């Protein structure tokens, strides 16, 4: 495999990972989300839960693919001197690359919080044990979790858009930081 | 200027391809959990919203490519890549137009005078099957278009991320 083919593969996989994350988030937020208002609340809840379960698989796949394809692209373009010479802190492209990695880590942390903290709370069924007050508390906890997931999802979309801006500045220039 | 053009180009391809993948990998399997009547309502609402998203993306992709060439951006596209990207764009624009103006409205058609319910249901099912095929063709063409866009060659829009 020549370097060009590695670059083609890495570029394509990188674009696909970005497409799945950004395009999927946009579709979830602006297409499926608003459409849920047109079905009964119980059905909308099932829809939200099932769609989130499936979308999270895509999100984690793209978050895993981004650094792999990014590193392939980075090394196939022979930019590794950026790291080895310590230029990552002193040059615009180095700082831009570092910012991309930090923001990717933020996306991973947010994704973990949604997947392992809030999703189980939303998936839990309200139990009748402890009486009406206990059920009320559970419902309130689920509503809080739903609001936080919604807030985090929007924040993730904004962060992903910033990451793409940083990536574009590297692809078409020398970074913007 | 060229960073901004490259950014818009990348985002719009991502929204288009990602939206098509979302419909195929999330929305299509999800329909098993929704009663048929509600699937129809959701398809109608989502189809209309997705159509505007797709049109906006296609317009922005064309505009950024033309602006890149017109402003003499570095690594201008080769003729072969122009043709390949242009062909993918024309196919996608045609598919969005056909689905938006013909097939999607037919899949939500109302009963016509003298038509019985069975005939209406057959007509709707035919449109839904055509829509399914067109959506998969659209996804395939979008994925090929993304490959052309991602092909590293110079540093024109879509040269790489």
Describe the fold and architecture.
The complex is a heterodimer of chains A (177) and B (161). With 177 residues, chain A is mainly alpha-helical. Chain A has one domain (3-171). Chain A contains five helices and no strands. In chain A, helix 1 runs antiparallel to helix 2 (41-76), helix 2 (41-76) runs antiparallel to helix 4 and helix 4 (92-123) runs antiparallel to helix 5 (131-171). The radius of gyration of chain A is 20 Å and the shape is elongated. The two termini of chain A are 34 Å apart. Chain B has 161 residues and is mostly helical. Chain B has one domain (2-150). Chain B contains four helices and no strands. In chain B, helix 3 packs antiparallel against helix 4 (117-150). Chains A and B meet through helix 1, helix 2 and helix 5 of A and helix 1, helix 2 and helix 4 of B.
Shape of chain B: elongated
- Number of domains as seen in the coordinates of chain B: 1
State the helical fraction of chain A.
Answer: over 70%
Query: How far is it from the N-terminal to the C-terminal residue of chain A, by CA?
Result: 34 Å
Q: By helix and strand content of chain A, what is the structural category? A: mainly alpha
Strand coverage percent of chain B: under 5%
Structural class by SSE content of chain B: mainly alpha
Largest sheet of chain B, described in full? Answer: none
Count of domains of chain A:
1
Q: What's the oligomerization state?
A: heterodimer
Order of helices and strands of chain A: HHHHH
- Overall radius of gyration of chain A: 20 Å
Helix content of chain B: over 70%
Q: Regions of chain A with pLDDT < 50 over 5+ consecutive residues?
A: none
- What is the count of DSSP helices of chain A, taking H or I runs of 4+ residues? 5
Highlighted features:
heterodimer, A: 177 residues, mainly alpha, 82% helix, B: 161 residues, 4 helices, 0% strand, elongated, disordered C terminus
């Amino acid at each position: 495999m020549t370097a060009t083919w590695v670059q083609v593969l890495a570029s394509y996989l990188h674009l696909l990972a970005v497409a799945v994350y950004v395009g999927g988030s946009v579709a979830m937020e602006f297409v499926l989300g608003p459409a849920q208002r047109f079905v009964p609340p119980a059905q909308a809840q099932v829809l939200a839960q099932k769609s989130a379960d499936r979308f999270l698989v895509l999100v984690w796949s793209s978050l895993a693919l981004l650094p792999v394809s990014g590193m392939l692209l980075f090394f196939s373009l022979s930019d590794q001197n950026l790291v080895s010479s310590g230029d990552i802190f002193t040059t615009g492209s180095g700082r831009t690359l570092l910012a991309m990695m930090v923001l990717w880590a933020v996306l991973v942390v947010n994704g973990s919080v949604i997947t392992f903290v809030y999703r189980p709370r939303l998936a839990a069924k309200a139990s009748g044990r402890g009486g009406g007050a206990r059920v009320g508390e559970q419902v309130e906890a689920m509503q809080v979790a739903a609001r936080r997931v919604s807030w985090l999802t929007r924040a993730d979309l904004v962060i992903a858009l910033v990451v793409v801006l940083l990536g574009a500045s590297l692809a078409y220039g020398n970074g913007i930081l | 200027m060229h960073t901004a053009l490259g950014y818009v180009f990348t985002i719009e391809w991502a929204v288009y391809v990602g939206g098509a993948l979302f419909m195929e990998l999330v929305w299509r399997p999800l329909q098993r959990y929704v009663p048929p009547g509600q699937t129809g309502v959701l398809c109608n609402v989502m189809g209309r919203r997705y159509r505007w998203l797709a049109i906006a993306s296609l317009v922005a992709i064309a505009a950024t490519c033309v602006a890149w060439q017109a402003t003499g951006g570095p690594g201008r596209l080769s003729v072969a890549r122009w043709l390949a990207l242009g062909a993918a764009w024309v196919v996608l624009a045609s598919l969005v137009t056909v689905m938006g103006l013909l097939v999607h409205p037919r899949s939500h058609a109302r009963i016509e005078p003298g038509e019985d319910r069975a005939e209406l249901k057959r007509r709707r099912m035919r449109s839904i099957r055509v829509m399914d095929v067109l959506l998969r063709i659209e996804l395939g063409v979008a994925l090929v278009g993304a490959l052309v866009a991602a092909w590293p060659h110079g540093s024109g829009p879509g040269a790489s991320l």
